[in-house]
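dude i think i finally got it to work??
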Amino acid sequence: MIVEHQEGLKVPKDRKLPKLFRKPGLHWPPTRKQQIIGGVVIVVLVFGLGASWTLLHHRRTVDATPKKSVVKKTTPPQPIYSTLTGLPVTDASVNQRTVTGVMIENSIDARPQSGLGEAGVVFEAVAEGGVTRFLALFQDTAPDNVGPIRSARPYYVSWDMGFDAAYAHVGGSPDGLADITSWGTKDMNQFYNSGSYHRTSDRVAPHNVYTSISTLNQLEAAKGFTSSYTGFTRAKKDAPVAAPNATSIDFHLSGFTYDPHYDYVAASNSYNRSEAGAAHVDANTGNQISPKVVIAMEVSLAQGALDSSGAYYSDYTTVGSGTAYIFQNGTEITGTWSKASNNAQITFTDAAGQPIPLNPGQTWISAVTAGGVSYK
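look at this
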């Protein structure tokens, strides 16, 4: 038996209409539109259930334990020190440069000199007639103006060769020029390399020959010069004493005009240099020369041959050993200087024969005869 039910839907009288379709507007079997809507609902439900399951059962486990940060240990770079001065330098290539030795005069007409304040090591001795002269050595500095430059002497050549240094000079004594040749010195005589030197107009000859270290470096490179040497034993840093006992120092070389005087300056732990009762200044900077270390070496001195002016050339003994007076940190240490050969480096040792560490910075070394040192 067929009965009518909701909007003409006919079903058997003994079958009940599904609850889903007992509401107004629904039919059984569902219409095409209801089938599409039902399918979309089913897909959405399935997708939602699947996503929920994934989130609930496959969520990444989060470790709540705080992790310790890993700090990588880095080795600090090792400091690099100048072989010539013991001062720290930023580039190891500094110590690969050729050491440049320059003869600088100290006559009254040569003062003030240029470049002495920037030299790493300076040797001082009498050239002739009581007039002193300097051998200034450069490696980690390069002043643009150096001079006035004068002639060679054998003892300066010997000290220069201890640093395997190139040697800049204008001519020389007969013995000095002969030794340069026979000893194989790295020679940069102005007579044969005039393009690397110039004469200034503000001074009269022969006190007006100048150069720059960069110009001499170019000449050294052109000649294939290099340096391989042992520097002085150096302390890593200054160690000034609380109660200095050597604050006023005098070296006797030839007389008032040329004898150097030093005053200790505690603030800089250095020694202000004076000559002839006045501050010894560098013309490049106007600053008083103030080395960190001052040394007097007792050496034998004899009269050599006469020069063209009738003055005797000095004849110092450079190879051997003798007493050395080392001033640094406001104190004095009496030790021994030694030099085994012209090519060997000078060493400074204490009473036990151990090297005396010199403060980093400029070192000024004067050749004196016995009894030529006083201080208080």
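Residues 44 and 204 are 107 Å apart (CA to CA).
im so relieved honestly
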